[in-house]
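retry 2 of 3: previous attempt timed out while embedding flavin mononucleotide. Reduced batch size to 1 and resubmitted. Inputs unchanged:
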Amino acid sequence: MFYRPEDGHGLPHNPFNAIVTPRPIGWISTRGADGSENLAPYSFFNAVAYVPPQVMFASTSAKPDRDGTKDSVANIRETSVFCVNVVEYAMRDVMNLTSGPWPREVDEFNKADVAREACETIACSRVADAPANLECRLTQIVQLPGDANVVVFGEVTGVHLRDDCLRDGLFDVTTFQPLTRLGYRDYSRITEVFRIERPGE
Ligand SMILES: Cc1cc2nc3c(=O)[nH]c(=O)nc-3n(C[C@H](O)[C@H](O)[C@H](O)COP(=O)(O)O)c2cc1C
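retry 2 succeeded.
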């Protein structure tokens, strides 16, 4: 089949987010100017540069109690920092609980009973038990076409790696099984890894 997005797909559910898969999940922790804390998952997320290391996530749509955006972006606009927490399979249910459309004053660390620790380089909390955390300073927020579509870019200023995830000097994903987002309500986890050598190296 072929469809133009503006004409609709004619399927029971939008296939778009089942096409670009699997997506990593950036579990984003932020702090507002008033000190309130927030935690929410974003699968329009990725790393985008090595030197300096940079990441992005995209926020789509808005909450009624925020001015045209969601809590995460609103907090980042106020404080210019955020932390990306890596989600392992074992954290799937608590991660999902933090995705609810909770009022802005709800602290999802408390709501989902997620242990927090202070970041080293930014004034924000991180998920204490995550396989890895990337402390980030905002570089730019880019407005995209459509209502409330923005991309947040950040430079990584601190990296935490959980000790048990390091094996023979490698950050070994088989030690924790990263959770990935598929389409619809589907997820996957990485359980098998194979190598492909690149030509000319
Ligand atoms: C696995 C997962 C991935 C998600 N990815 C995104 C995303 O990329 N962009 C987005 O705007 N919302 C995404 N959501 C929905 C947000 O997590 C949800 O709207 C949440 O309430 C936003 O929280 P906040 O207002 O505290 O930032 C995702 C939800 C789940 C469960």
